[in-house]
Amino acid sequence: MFQAKHSGRDKIHFFNEDMQTALEQRVQMENWLRLAIPEQLRLVYQLQADQQKRVFGAEALIRWHHPEQGLISPASFIPLAETTGLILPIGRWVLESVCRQLKEWENNGLTQHLIVSVNVSATQFQQDNFVDQVLDVVDQTGTRPDRLKLELTESMLIENTEATIAKMNALKEKGISFSLDDFGTGYSSLSYLKQLPLDQIKIDQSFIRDILTDPNDAAIVRTIIALGRTLGLNVVAEGVETGRQLDLLSAYGCYNFQGYLFGKPVAVDEFMQQLLKN
Protein backbone atom coordinates (compact mmCIF):
# COMPACT_ATOMS: atom_id res chain seq x y z
CA MET A 1 0.00 0.00 0.00
CA PHE A 2 2.75 2.42 0.92
CA GLN A 3 4.62 1.61 -2.28
CA ALA A 4 1.48 2.25 -4.31
CA LYS A 5 0.95 5.61 -2.62
CA HIS A 6 4.61 6.52 -3.19
CA SER A 7 4.25 5.80 -6.92
CA GLY A 8 1.46 8.33 -7.33
CA ARG A 9 -2.22 8.42 -8.13
CA ASP A 10 -4.22 6.99 -11.03
CA LYS A 11 -2.20 3.80 -11.24
CA ILE A 12 -2.90 0.12 -10.71
CA HIS A 13 -0.51 -1.97 -8.58
CA PHE A 14 -0.40 -5.67 -7.93
CA PHE A 15 1.18 -7.31 -4.92
CA ASN A 16 4.48 -9.02 -5.55
CA GLU A 17 6.28 -11.29 -3.11
CA ASP A 18 9.51 -9.42 -3.86
CA MET A 19 7.95 -6.37 -2.23
CA GLN A 20 7.27 -8.34 0.93
CA THR A 21 10.83 -9.66 0.92
CA ALA A 22 12.24 -6.17 0.44
CA LEU A 23 10.07 -4.86 3.29
CA GLU A 24 11.22 -7.62 5.64
CA GLN A 25 14.84 -6.94 4.76
CA ARG A 26 14.35 -3.23 5.39
CA VAL A 27 12.76 -3.84 8.79
CA GLN A 28 15.57 -6.21 9.72
CA MET A 29 18.20 -3.73 8.60
CA GLU A 30 16.54 -0.97 10.62
CA ASN A 31 16.51 -3.13 13.74
CA TRP A 32 20.17 -3.99 13.24
CA LEU A 33 21.05 -0.33 12.75
CA ARG A 34 19.27 0.75 15.94
CA LEU A 35 21.41 -1.72 17.87
CA ALA A 36 24.58 -0.70 16.00
CA ILE A 37 24.72 2.91 17.19
CA PRO A 38 27.46 3.57 18.15
CA GLU A 39 29.24 0.36 19.16
CA GLN A 40 29.41 -1.18 15.69
CA LEU A 41 30.21 2.06 13.86
CA ARG A 42 33.75 3.01 12.88
CA LEU A 43 35.36 6.01 11.25
CA VAL A 44 37.95 5.82 8.52
CA TYR A 45 39.94 8.70 7.08
CA GLN A 46 40.94 9.38 3.48
CA LEU A 47 43.73 11.86 3.06
CA GLN A 48 43.62 14.90 0.79
CA ALA A 49 46.82 16.16 -0.82
CA ASP A 50 48.24 18.62 -3.31
CA GLN A 51 50.12 17.82 -6.52
CA GLN A 52 53.36 17.37 -4.56
CA LYS A 53 51.46 14.80 -2.43
CA ARG A 54 51.68 17.01 0.64
CA VAL A 55 48.74 16.14 2.88
CA PHE A 56 46.61 19.09 3.99
CA GLY A 57 43.46 17.36 5.18
CA ALA A 58 41.25 14.32 5.30
CA GLU A 59 37.65 13.26 4.91
CA ALA A 60 36.04 11.24 7.69
CA LEU A 61 33.89 8.38 6.39
CA ILE A 62 31.64 6.04 8.32
CA ARG A 63 31.74 2.24 8.25
CA TRP A 64 29.41 -0.30 9.85
CA HIS A 65 30.88 -3.59 11.02
CA HIS A 66 28.01 -5.93 11.86
CA PRO A 67 29.09 -8.81 14.15
CA GLU A 68 27.45 -11.41 11.89
CA GLN A 69 26.97 -9.74 8.50
CA GLY A 70 30.42 -8.16 8.38
CA LEU A 71 30.98 -4.85 6.65
CA ILE A 72 27.71 -3.26 5.51
CA SER A 73 28.03 -0.65 2.77
CA PRO A 74 27.12 2.97 3.57
CA ALA A 75 25.10 2.91 0.34
CA SER A 76 22.83 0.38 2.05
CA PHE A 77 22.39 1.92 5.48
CA ILE A 78 22.77 5.69 5.05
CA PRO A 79 19.55 6.10 2.99
CA LEU A 80 17.75 3.96 5.58
CA ALA A 81 19.17 6.08 8.38
CA GLU A 82 17.90 9.19 6.60
CA THR A 83 14.33 7.93 6.22
CA THR A 84 14.11 6.58 9.79
CA GLY A 85 15.71 9.54 11.52
CA LEU A 86 18.59 7.42 12.78
CA ILE A 87 20.92 9.68 10.83
CA LEU A 88 20.60 12.20 13.69
CA PRO A 89 22.30 10.12 16.40
CA ILE A 90 24.72 8.77 13.79
CA GLY A 91 25.62 12.27 12.63
CA ARG A 92 26.12 13.44 16.20
CA TRP A 93 28.40 10.49 16.91
CA VAL A 94 30.46 11.18 13.78
CA LEU A 95 30.87 14.85 14.63
CA GLU A 96 31.85 14.10 18.23
CA SER A 97 34.32 11.41 17.14
CA VAL A 98 35.99 13.66 14.57
CA CYS A 99 36.27 16.57 17.00
CA ARG A 100 37.82 14.33 19.65
CA GLN A 101 40.29 13.06 17.06
CA LEU A 102 41.17 16.60 16.01
CA LYS A 103 41.78 17.53 19.63
CA GLU A 104 44.08 14.54 20.03
CA TRP A 105 45.97 15.53 16.88
CA GLU A 106 46.59 19.12 18.01
CA ASN A 107 49.85 18.30 19.78
CA ASN A 108 51.25 16.10 17.04
CA GLY A 109 53.39 17.91 14.48
CA LEU A 110 52.35 15.37 11.87
CA THR A 111 48.64 16.08 12.20
CA GLN A 112 48.13 19.46 13.88
CA HIS A 113 47.72 21.24 10.53
CA LEU A 114 45.07 18.87 9.15
CA ILE A 115 41.54 20.01 8.35
CA VAL A 116 39.03 17.17 8.56
CA SER A 117 35.81 17.14 6.55
CA VAL A 118 32.57 15.71 7.93
CA ASN A 119 29.59 14.89 5.74
CA VAL A 120 26.37 16.48 6.96
CA SER A 121 23.00 14.98 6.01
CA ALA A 122 20.02 17.04 4.89
CA THR A 123 18.07 15.89 7.96
CA GLN A 124 20.83 17.10 10.27
CA PHE A 125 21.30 20.44 8.56
CA GLN A 126 17.57 21.21 8.46
CA GLN A 127 17.23 20.98 12.23
CA ASP A 128 16.49 24.36 13.78
CA ASN A 129 19.21 23.88 16.39
CA PHE A 130 21.87 22.55 14.00
CA VAL A 131 24.23 25.46 14.63
CA ASP A 132 23.94 25.08 18.40
CA GLN A 133 24.55 21.32 18.13
CA VAL A 134 27.77 21.78 16.17
CA LEU A 135 29.09 24.53 18.42
CA ASP A 136 28.19 22.48 21.49
CA VAL A 137 30.27 19.55 20.23
CA VAL A 138 33.19 21.85 19.39
CA ASP A 139 33.03 23.44 22.85
CA GLN A 140 32.71 20.12 24.69
CA THR A 141 35.64 18.53 22.90
CA GLY A 142 37.78 21.68 23.00
CA THR A 143 38.84 21.28 19.39
CA ARG A 144 39.83 24.18 17.16
CA PRO A 145 36.86 25.06 14.94
CA ASP A 146 39.15 26.09 12.10
CA ARG A 147 40.25 22.44 11.80
CA LEU A 148 36.68 21.33 11.06
CA LYS A 149 35.03 21.42 7.65
CA LEU A 150 31.40 20.48 6.97
CA GLU A 151 30.55 18.92 3.61
CA LEU A 152 27.13 19.67 2.14
CA THR A 153 25.48 18.38 -1.03
CA GLU A 154 23.80 20.47 -3.70
CA SER A 155 20.34 19.03 -3.09
CA MET A 156 20.45 20.36 0.50
CA LEU A 157 20.91 23.93 -0.62
CA ILE A 158 17.99 24.61 -2.95
CA GLU A 159 15.32 24.95 -0.26
CA ASN A 160 15.09 27.91 2.10
CA THR A 161 18.29 29.51 0.89
CA GLU A 162 18.13 32.35 3.40
CA ALA A 163 18.03 29.97 6.37
CA THR A 164 20.85 27.93 4.85
CA ILE A 165 23.05 30.99 4.44
CA ALA A 166 22.28 32.14 7.99
CA LYS A 167 23.33 28.77 9.46
CA MET A 168 26.50 28.67 7.40
CA ASN A 169 27.46 32.22 8.33
CA ALA A 170 26.86 31.55 12.03
CA LEU A 171 29.29 28.62 11.90
CA LYS A 172 31.81 30.40 9.68
CA GLU A 173 31.99 33.20 12.24
CA LYS A 174 33.38 30.61 14.64
CA GLY A 175 35.97 29.43 12.13
CA ILE A 176 34.25 26.35 10.66
CA SER A 177 34.52 26.04 6.88
CA PHE A 178 32.23 24.52 4.26
CA SER A 179 32.70 22.32 1.22
CA LEU A 180 30.17 21.52 -1.51
CA ASP A 181 30.43 17.79 -2.19
CA ASP A 182 29.86 15.98 -5.51
CA PHE A 183 29.69 19.22 -7.45
CA GLY A 184 28.19 18.85 -10.90
CA THR A 185 25.87 15.94 -10.13
CA GLY A 186 22.99 17.96 -8.69
CA TYR A 187 21.39 21.26 -9.59
CA SER A 188 24.62 23.24 -9.98
CA SER A 189 22.80 26.56 -9.88
CA LEU A 190 25.20 29.44 -10.27
CA SER A 191 22.76 31.73 -8.48
CA TYR A 192 23.04 29.85 -5.19
CA LEU A 193 26.74 29.14 -5.70
CA LYS A 194 27.55 32.85 -5.64
CA GLN A 195 25.34 33.44 -2.59
CA LEU A 196 26.55 30.66 -0.32
CA PRO A 197 29.55 31.25 1.96
CA LEU A 198 31.45 28.23 0.65
CA ASP A 199 35.18 27.65 0.94
CA GLN A 200 35.55 24.63 -1.32
CA ILE A 201 33.89 22.62 -4.08
CA LYS A 202 34.66 18.97 -4.80
CA ILE A 203 34.47 17.64 -8.34
CA ASP A 204 32.52 14.39 -8.29
CA GLN A 205 34.54 11.29 -9.09
CA SER A 206 32.10 10.32 -11.86
CA PHE A 207 33.65 13.09 -13.99
CA ILE A 208 37.22 12.16 -13.04
CA ARG A 209 36.86 8.46 -13.88
CA ASP A 210 36.73 8.96 -17.65
CA ILE A 211 38.46 12.32 -17.90
CA LEU A 212 41.20 10.83 -20.11
CA THR A 213 38.80 9.27 -22.62
CA ASP A 214 35.58 11.29 -22.54
CA PRO A 215 35.84 14.82 -23.99
CA ASN A 216 32.58 15.80 -22.30
CA ASP A 217 33.86 14.86 -18.85
CA ALA A 218 37.09 16.70 -19.55
CA ALA A 219 35.17 19.82 -20.60
CA ILE A 220 32.97 19.68 -17.49
CA VAL A 221 36.01 19.32 -15.22
CA ARG A 222 37.78 22.26 -16.88
CA THR A 223 34.66 24.39 -16.46
CA ILE A 224 34.24 23.51 -12.79
CA ILE A 225 37.89 24.28 -12.07
CA ALA A 226 37.68 27.63 -13.85
CA LEU A 227 34.42 28.47 -12.08
CA GLY A 228 35.86 27.63 -8.69
CA ARG A 229 38.96 29.69 -9.25
CA THR A 230 36.90 32.65 -10.48
CA LEU A 231 34.75 32.54 -7.34
CA GLY A 232 37.80 32.21 -5.12
CA LEU A 233 36.95 28.67 -4.03
CA ASN A 234 39.36 25.86 -3.33
CA VAL A 235 38.74 23.00 -5.79
CA VAL A 236 39.32 19.34 -4.89
CA ALA A 237 39.12 16.52 -7.43
CA GLU A 238 37.70 13.30 -5.97
CA GLY A 239 38.42 9.78 -7.14
CA VAL A 240 41.91 10.40 -8.53
CA GLU A 241 43.45 6.99 -9.12
CA THR A 242 46.21 7.38 -11.72
CA GLY A 243 49.18 9.58 -12.39
CA ARG A 244 47.78 10.50 -15.81
CA GLN A 245 44.58 11.80 -14.22
CA LEU A 246 46.68 13.80 -11.76
CA ASP A 247 48.79 15.31 -14.54
CA LEU A 248 45.75 16.32 -16.60
CA LEU A 249 43.94 17.83 -13.63
CA SER A 250 47.07 19.78 -12.72
CA ALA A 251 47.30 21.05 -16.30
CA TYR A 252 43.68 22.23 -15.98
CA GLY A 253 44.57 24.19 -12.84
CA CYS A 254 43.36 21.84 -10.10
CA TYR A 255 45.95 21.32 -7.40
CA ASN A 256 44.09 19.49 -4.62
CA PHE A 257 43.12 15.85 -4.78
CA GLN A 258 41.52 12.91 -3.03
CA GLY A 259 41.56 9.32 -4.22
CA TYR A 260 43.26 5.95 -4.21
CA LEU A 261 46.37 7.40 -5.86
CA PHE A 262 47.07 9.15 -2.56
CA GLY A 263 45.46 6.72 -0.13
CA LYS A 264 42.39 4.61 0.56
CA PRO A 265 40.03 5.33 3.48
CA VAL A 266 41.65 3.65 6.48
CA ALA A 267 41.44 3.49 10.26
CA VAL A 268 43.35 6.06 12.32
CA ASP A 269 46.46 3.93 12.94
CA GLU A 270 46.92 3.14 9.26
CA PHE A 271 46.12 6.75 8.37
CA MET A 272 49.05 7.83 10.54
CA GLN A 273 51.26 5.41 8.67
CA GLN A 274 50.15 6.97 5.39
CA LEU A 275 51.12 10.38 6.71
CA LEU A 276 54.60 9.14 7.57
CA LYS A 277 55.08 7.97 3.98
CA ASN A 278 54.04 11.29 2.41
Task: Provide a compact summary of the structure.
47% of the residues lie in helices and 20% in strands.
Structure in words:
This protein has 12 helices and 9 strands. It has one domain: Alpha-Beta Barrel (TIM Barrel). Strand 2 and strand 3 form a beta hairpin. Strands 1-2-4-5-6-7-8-9 form an 8-stranded mixed beta barrel, surrounded by 4 helices. It is α/β, with parallel strands linked by helices. It starts with a helix and ends with a helix. Helices cover 47% and strands 20% of the residues. The relative contact order is 0.12. It has helices spanning 2-7, 17-36, 74-84, 87-105, 122-125, 130-141, 161-172, 190-195, 205-209, 215-230, 243-252, 268-277, and strands at residues 41-50, 55-66, 70-72, 115-119, 148-153, 177-183, 200-203, 234-238, 256-258. The model has no long low-confidence stretch (mean pLDDT 90).
